[in-house]
């Protein structure tokens, strides 16, 4: 009803009067656009449409019909007569075919019976119905529903829908420094705001108050109707400045030419409802907050580029005079290699692993807190403007139809232990697939080392890293779709009682599965790869002879950066272009193609599609969960591992600029119009965002401490360096190994000539690299330098986490959740509402007293005054 109350005013009054009057050239001009927006009488507007499947015999088609008083009885009798007359026909046909046909007809009659019963109940509630079974789309019948004004008013009371009163008060702007800054920014960015005229002044706001009845829901029988949707409003192309239609939304929101402008959030809310309006408002705030994060990330990256030539560890690795020979990276097939060949990788790692990385990690932790606080304040401001401040306090969550159906059938719900087993099994599948990719990297590296082609042998690292990252990306995208279906299946097995419980459980399961799917390869590269390798002569093997892979000489940070880059760009490009653009267009084309093929077999006289027929060919609205989930995973990649990839905010910003217009175009042109739903906040998504921002602090602390070389460089510079610089850092991270200590069958097949028995092995970013030399009494044991660095790493994690958490809590405490001006206006509105009601009650008392005075009659001398009554005399008795 709330959707209909807002949608009823979408048609301009002047256009509405002209169309009702049927005179003038305007009706002919708009006839194509309003075709299908009204009943056959041209007066009652189609507020809602239900579609159902109908069977056609030959080329016979039923014409549009209106509902009469005895339509249900007539259809029931016709259905029974057809069923009884169908048996003696064609006695010589195949009995199996006849049985199947009889079963199909029985099912069709049963569906028709349910529809007639359901439609009769709709009429009893006051709704007006009209059928169209002779539409241009064969096999589809349309039930058009119109809600009269009295029905809308009644349902508004049930929904406690806030309606504006005649009382208008002035909205005073705050005088604080923050409010003045906000107003200054608003004036500066005025050219970026959409050109949408608002009839309401920004300085005035009408008082609103809810009614006091409970909300009722319309339940549709499963399988009886195939789809249900309101119509897109396309009747305001001429009076575009005074209405809220899809054309205005397309020009000011969905067009890529306005990508630099703010979104018309108020217009989105009026057309799609508060729930969708809040999503796009949140997406806009998130995209806005990515701008400073992207700028700082680019500065950090440029700092790495500017200082790469002055980085002492990279200079030592690239110096050919340091003739350092490294141990093989795999058994037998791999040979010894020179450290100077890793010069390019070391320089590239410095772009992301430098002194500015720690500063950027602290900044992003505070950025996440500021983003959450900014959104809370923005959400509160929208609640005030949209009259949602009291929504949800007395709202009851109704039982789901499936829950009541299961209760009636006494079906047992899925036990919690069984649910956890199935959920754990799905997560284990992800781990197994990631382990398979690890085996791929190990085997492909050995195979490439055995190649005789010099180009292949020279680019082994780049080939293995890139192909493994692409394979991970493909697996992530495929499992995302599978896990989404699994999460919905598991939630349905639980049979949640209410819609809110169903949605929250579905979101939680989907988030867990997709989060594990997206971040398992990244977590492996950041914290596990190169940690469980062993040492030369005592390597760790899995699945027989597969030796665990090592990190490169400069650590695993570069590979982590490559995996993040490919995953972010790949998911955004493929999911946006293929899943959000390609698949909906393909489905729409297939539906239209199917309709055209059936039309060829069954010719139809009318070729022009009506509005409700065009909307039928659009894709169904499946909810906001996929949109939120995509952004939540992106938020995790921006915050969790930003220490290894400072350009993540920039890529997220560029993607979201396109994502906003892409989603807008999809909602306006590719999907059926969703049913408007009220919502006060973004629900469980806020809790997930807040949890990710807390986890991001810990993850970034571990990335800096254990994945990057920041702590080893710091420890060497202040504990072991003779001159307080990083000169000699590379040699400090290397240990000696006696080549005669290789296990039999693991030594290289192609040893290097003129090599001494003691060669150096790289210990960059590998915890167990710091080992005693072979001539020591503690041969190949972890050295004291290893324990000193480990202690420094753990201390850094504790200090970093507590300092950043303390700063975040201080920012959270410093910024109030509700803007001061909004809290003052809400308090003022309550006072004015009480005053208004007091005046109304006083006026009612005065009116009742006047009625009593008018009803009094002068008494004669012999008449006694009447005794007091227990109930006042009504006005009806006075007449």
UniProtKB/TrEMBL annotation:
Domain of life of the organism encoding this protein: Eukaryota
Keywords: Cell membrane, Glycoprotein, Membrane, Transmembrane, Transmembrane helix
Residue ranges with Low complexity bias: 870-879
Record bears the keyword Signal: no
Membrane topology: Multi-pass membrane protein
Annotated Anoctamin dimerisation domain residues: 38-218, 219-265
Keyword check for Transport: no
A GO cellular component annotation in the UniProt record: plasma membrane
Primary location class: membrane
Subcellular location: Cell membrane; Membrane
TM regions (residue ranges): 279-303, 355-372, 419-442, 462-486, 506-527, 631-654
MF terms (GO), sorted A to Z: intracellularly calcium-gated chloride channel activity; protein dimerization activity
Region (Disordered): 79-109, 855-879
Domain Anoctamin transmembrane: 268-829
Family indicated by similarity: Belongs to the anoctamin family.
Protein name as catalogued: Anoctamin
Organism per entry: Pundamilia nyererei
């Amino acid at each position: 009803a709330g959707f209909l109350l807002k949608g009823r005013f979408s048609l301009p009054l002047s256009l509405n009067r002209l169309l009702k009057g049927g005179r003038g050239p305007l009706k002919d001009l708009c006839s194509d656009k309003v075709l299908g927006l009204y009943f056959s009488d041209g007066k009652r507007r189609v507020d809602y449409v239900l579609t159902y499947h109908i069977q056609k015999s030959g080329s016979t088609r039923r014409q549009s019909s209106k509902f009469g008083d005895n339509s249900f009885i007539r259809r029931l009798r016709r259905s029974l007569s057809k069923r009884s007359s169908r048996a003696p026909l064609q006695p010589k046909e195949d009995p199996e075919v006849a049985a199947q046909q009889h079963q199909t007809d029985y099912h069709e009659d049963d569906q028709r019976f349910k529809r007639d019963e359901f439609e009769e109940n709709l009429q009893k509630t006051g709704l007006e119905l009209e059928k169209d079974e002779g539409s241009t789309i064969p096999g589809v019948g349309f039930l058009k529903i119109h809600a009269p004004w009295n029905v809308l008013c009644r349902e508004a009371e049930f929904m406690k829908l806030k309606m504006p009163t005649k009382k208008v008060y002035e909205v005073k702007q705050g005088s604080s420094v923050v409010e003045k800054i906000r107003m200054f920014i608003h004036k500066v960015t005025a050219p970026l705001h959409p050109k949408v005229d608002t009839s309401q002044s920004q300085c005035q706001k009408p008082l609103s108050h809810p009614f006091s009845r409970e909300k009722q829901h319309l339940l549709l029988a499963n399988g009886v109707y195939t789809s249900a949707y309101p119509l897109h409003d396309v009747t305001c192309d001429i009076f575009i400045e005074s209405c809220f239609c899809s054309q205005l939304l397309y020009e000011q929101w969905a067009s890529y030419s306005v990508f630099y402008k703010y979104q018309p959030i108020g217009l989105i809310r009026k057309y799609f409802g508060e729930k969708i309006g809040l999503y796009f408002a949140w997406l806009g705030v998130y995209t806005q907050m990515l701008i400073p994060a992207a700028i700082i990330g680019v500065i950090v990256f440029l700092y790495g580029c500017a200082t790469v030539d002055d980085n002492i560890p990279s200079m030592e690795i690239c110096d050919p005079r340091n003739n350092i020979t490294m141990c093989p990276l795999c058994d037998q097939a791999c040979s010894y290699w020179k450290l100077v060949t890793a010069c390019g990788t070391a320089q590239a790692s410095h772009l992301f692993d430098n002194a500015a990385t720690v500063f950027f990690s602290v900044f992003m932790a505070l950025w996440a807190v500021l983003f959450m606080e900014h959104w809370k304040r923005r959400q509160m401001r929208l609640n005030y403007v949209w009259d949602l401040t009291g929504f949800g306090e007395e709202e009851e969550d109704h039982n789901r139809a499936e829950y009541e159906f299961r209760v009636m059938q006494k079906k047992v719900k899925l036990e919690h232990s069984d649910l956890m087993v199935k959920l754990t099994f799905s997560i284990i599948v992800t781990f197994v697939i990631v382990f398979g990719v690890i085996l791929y990297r190990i085997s492909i590296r050995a195979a490439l080392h055995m190649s005789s082609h010099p180009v292949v042998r020279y680019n082994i690292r780049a080939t293995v890293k890139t192909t493994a990252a692409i394979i991970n990306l493909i697996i992530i995208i495929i499992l995302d779709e599978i896990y989404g279906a699994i999460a919905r299946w598991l939630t349905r097995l639980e049979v949640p009682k209410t819609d809110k419980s169903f949605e929250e459980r579905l979101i939680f399961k989907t988030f867990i599965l997709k989060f594990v799917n997206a971040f398992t390869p990244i977590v492996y590269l950041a914290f596990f790869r190169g940690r469980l390798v062993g040492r030369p002569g005592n390597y760790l093997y899995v699945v027989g002879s597969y030796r665990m892979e090592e990190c490169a000489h400069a650590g695993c940070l570069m590979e982590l950066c490559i995996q993040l880059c490919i995953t972010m760009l790949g998911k955004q490009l493929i999911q946006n272009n293929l899943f959000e653009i390609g698949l909906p267009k393909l489905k729409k084309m297939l539906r239209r193609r199917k309709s055209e093929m059936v039309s060829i077999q069954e010719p139809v006289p009318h070729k022009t599609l009506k509005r409700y027929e065009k909307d039928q060919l659009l894709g169904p609205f499946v909810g906001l969960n996929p949109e939120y989930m995509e952004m939540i995973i992106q938020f995790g990649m921006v915050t969790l591992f930003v220490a290894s990839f400072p350009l993540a905010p920039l890529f997220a910003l560029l993607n979201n600029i396109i994502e906003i217009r892409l989603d807008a175009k999809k909602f306006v042109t590719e999907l059926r119009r969703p049913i408007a739903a009220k919502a006060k906040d973004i629900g469980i998504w806020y809790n997930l965002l807040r949890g990710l921002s807390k986890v991001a602090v810990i993850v970034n602390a571990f990335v800096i401490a254990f994945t990057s070389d920041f702590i080893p460089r710091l420890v060497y510079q202040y504990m072991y360096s003779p001159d307080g610089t990083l000169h000699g850092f590379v040699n400090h991270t290397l240990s000696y190994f006696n080549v005669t200590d290789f296990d039999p069958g693991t030594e290289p097949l192609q040893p290097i000539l003129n090599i001494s028995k003691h060669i150096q092995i790289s210990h960059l970013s590998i915890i167990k690299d710091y080992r005693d030399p072979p001539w020591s009494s503690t041969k190949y044991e972890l050295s004291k330098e290893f324990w000193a660095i480990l202690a420094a790493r753990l201390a850094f994690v504790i200090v970093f986490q507590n300092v950043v958490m303390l700063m975040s809590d201080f920012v959270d405490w410093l910024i109030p959740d509700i803007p001061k001006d909004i809290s003052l206006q809400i308090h003022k509105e309550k006072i004015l509402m009480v005053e208004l009601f007091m005046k109304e009650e006083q006026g009612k008392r005065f009116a009742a007293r006047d009625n009593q005075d008018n009803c009094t009659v002068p008494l004669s001398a012999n008449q006694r005054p009447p005794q007091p009554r227990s109930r006042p005399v009504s006005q009806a008795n006075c007449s």
